[in-house]
Amino acid sequence: MGLKEKLHNIKEKGKDKKWLSAFSAFHTFLYTPNETTHSGGHIKGADDLKRTMTAVIIPLIPILIFAMFNVGYQQHIAIHGYQANMGFFSGEFWNLDNFLLGATKLIPLLLVSYVVGLGIEVFFATINNHEVEEGYFVTGMLIPLIVPVDTPLWMLTVAIVFGVVIGKEVFGGTGMNILNPALTIRAFLFFAYPTWMSGDKVWIAGAVERSKEILAGAHLDAFSGETILGGLAGGKHLAYSVTDMFYGFIPGSVGETSTLLILLGGIYLIYTKIGSWRIMLSAVIGALTMGLIFNSVVNEGWIVEGSKFYTLMNTPFWEHLIIGGFAFGVVFMATDPVTASQTNRGKWIYGFLIGFISIMIRVFNPAYPEGVMLAILLMNVFSPTIDHYVIASNIKKRLKRLKPKTVYNVKEYRK
Amino acid sequence: MGILTKKDLKLITDPLADNNPITVQVLGICSALAVTAQLKASIVMAISVMFVLAAGNVVISSMRNIIPPKIRIIVQLVIAATLVIIVDQVLKAYSYNLSKQLSVFVGLIITNCIIMGRFEAFALANTPWKSFLDGIGNAAGYGIILVIVAFFRELLGSGSVLGFKVLGNPIEKTGVYAYGYENNGFMLLAPMALITLGVIIWVQRSRNSSLIEEN
User: Fold this and answer.
1) Nearest Cα residue in chain A from B182
2) Tell me, what's the ipTM?
């Protein structure tokens, strides 16, 4: 008897048992279930939830690997000073030391994310007696990519418990949530432990540790690094070239730095038809629009140098796309099919407002330089409303189209 | 049972759990969110509401046969307002800091839905003694939830209970702070109060299935 048979037999025996949902979750990793529906019409699609989720994870893997190199590289340059412009394939960046340092930092984050999150999923599936849903696979991968590298593991655990239980399970699990769970977790961290989510200490691995050692009396040089957005919000420019920002050799939340890889990921998602190109495109248009408005306000001379919003407003409009978490948020978070608008016209509105609002928050609220998180959460809440009005206007339009025709036909008929 | 018959006792115990004004009737949420960042403020709030509700219920109940039905809401408001002003003045006189901390929320007891609800639904139709017990019971049910929410918010948000730093000093890094623990700033914001309240309702409903509405 092969492994396949054995596993199926265990499943037969375990019917009506509590642990069955947990068992079959892991079982379907190896084999497709052998139950078939006996009546009704069938449509066979290969893109079930598990395949869809896996497809989103594929573009995230290069980003994760890049992030491991970048975490090491950022610490390296923080200690040894800033390295100027280099090509994408430079040896300074792609070396084993950087990778190992990054891996020791990121793998614990990844493990905690999956163990805690899936643990909760399995627990709820067991007490509710339904199948474990695969929605967490992407969330679990996203979480380590959107937090600062030095986030303490216990904080991450608390945030994940909160995000998965309050953000998702209370609404009924995967597919029923109103807010994107990964962003709920990040927002929780952001409001609960602001000192660990912003400022100049948390973006570089070991900076917090180092400053503690110095406080304790060690003779070391402190190092710190601000994100570009943090710097701009504080009214100063950070010396990173456009190519560095595009390639991602900059400090930031773990996975959001490399616009290049995110762009490739976005193209992959569009090609596989998993991410909506409407949302991505309209979000970029929205961001550019807001950026242009701010730029022209500066050009008109309404905001003068030295005033509060000048530096961020004066940032060229297209640069907003490659700094901060904007690109990552738009490609991987805004397109979440559960929380985004469902109608095509709704997607345009939803995406546009995400881009528009995230740049607005970025500029006007220096305390929350990462506007894209808040913008997406806000639009998540509004997406059903957008859909409602899109559908209502469609109905109206069709009724209008219907009316004259009917009248016309009646006349024809009377002749 | 001495002075309390079984029926009387039920007037007090019912609102504590199965007919709790906050978690079951979902009244008085605003003040439950606003004052619960600290346990002390919540306890004072609970006592103030208990005084206003019990005294108000007795007054309304003894006047119930002479209040003209058309203007009964105005009469109720006047009585509630009078009692709230008494509470406010006492707080200002004897505990000025706390009164500043509670700020407008003492004044807003007038608009607390529980107060008007009990006046209207119970005191207008029952004897003063029963109304008094009902007032005590409902205010206690309100107070219990306030205290539970405030306990968790203060403990997790500020690391203290009733102002005592039970988890250690966050600045000098003693107690649990020595191990890297940090206060959860989100607990001090109003959304977390709502979520805490939601979790309490969740726990209560999962323990008592008769509270769950049929679909």
Assistant:
1) A193
2) 0.83
